[in-house]
Specification:
This protein has seven helices and 14 strands. By secondary structure, the protein is of the alpha+beta class. The strands form five sheets. A four-stranded antiparallel sheet has the order 9-8-7-10. Strands 4-3-13 form a three-stranded mixed sheet, with no helix packed on it. A three-stranded mixed sheet has the order 12-11-14, covered by helices on one side.
Length: about 260
């Protein structure tokens, strides 16, 4: 049975109250976006992860992000979080189930960015997530895009982020029942779907991490997973909410359920 953790609930309430005040003031004043100040030094890649990733790509220095990983095993036109790997878990919601040794790392830690010369690059991070993506849905469509790296939050315009190169869209029914890559919406249709769908903004705080809660019309067979991870630091959870709200156009989050997975 899922139990409420009073200490986590207090943390969530404190963060939400602070956010509602700060974002309300920002909206009232129509503040100009400021460059985010990093709250921690860039994360290093653990030796075990580095050993695995070095077999499938190269670590290089990037002028903006520092050390990044560039895959060398992906086909032309590859996109992070490709379709047909999402599974509906009992513990942590929709989880990206990548069967490859390298994908199991880069789709649950760190962030992805697209570089004009290098293509998709992975920026290391220490915090676990079922999938570092942003979601948009409607009763007919579901779409996702890689979450921006911290360096890009509040510096990339919404128009830049909401472009067809970032997003993958599918029919809801096909997404929830295993899907097929042929069911992915063509890129030329994505601008229209970005107008027809809304961001998923309901969250649960499960075992120390944030988990997205989908609308009830997105259903699929439940699976159980067994993954080990460290809970997010309190400052990281707060920064996570701030970053997501910026992308959501300051959509205030009033519902954060604090639960413990069975």
């Amino acid at each position: 049975m899922r139990l409420v953790r009073s200490s986590m609930a207090a943390l969530a309430v404190t963060i939400l109250v602070a956010l509602s005040t700060s974002f309300g003031q920002a909206l009232a004043q129509q503040a100009v976006p400021q460059q985010v100040t990093p709250l921690a030094t860039p994360e290093t890649v653990q030796d075990e992860m580095r050993s695995v990733l070095s077999q499938y790509g190269s670590f290089v220095q990037h002028p903006k992000y520092g050390e990044v990983w560039v895959p060398t095993v992906t086909p032309q036109g590859w996109h992070p979080y490709p379709p047909c790997h999402w599974v509906n878990t009992r513990q942590y919601g929709w989880y990206f189930d990548d069967p490859t040794p390298w994908g199991q790392i880069v789709h649950h830690y760190g962030r992805w960015a697209h570089d004009q010369q290098m293509g998709w690059i992975w920026i290391p991070g220490a915090e676990f997530s079922p999938g570092w993506v942003v979601w948009r849905t409607s009763p007919q469509w579901i779409g996702w895009a890689p979450m921006l790296p911290d360096e890009d939050i509040k510096t990339v315009s919404v128009d830049e982020f909401n472009n067809s190169d970032q997003w993958i869209f599918m029919d809801v029914a096909k997404f929830a029942t295993g899907c097929a890559e042929s069911a992915v919406v063509a890129q030329q249709q994505i601008p229209m779907l970005l107008k027809e769908t809304k961001y998923v903004t309901l969250l649960e705080y499960v075992d120390g991490i944030a988990v997205f809660v989908f609308p009830p019309y997105i259903v699929g067979p439940f699976v159980d997973i067994n993954v080990a991870f460290d809970p997010w630091p309190a400052w990281f959870f707060g920064q996570f909410i701030i970053d997501w709200n910026w992308i959501w156009h300051h959509t205030l989050i009033w519902n954060v359920n604090v639960i413990c997975a069975p």
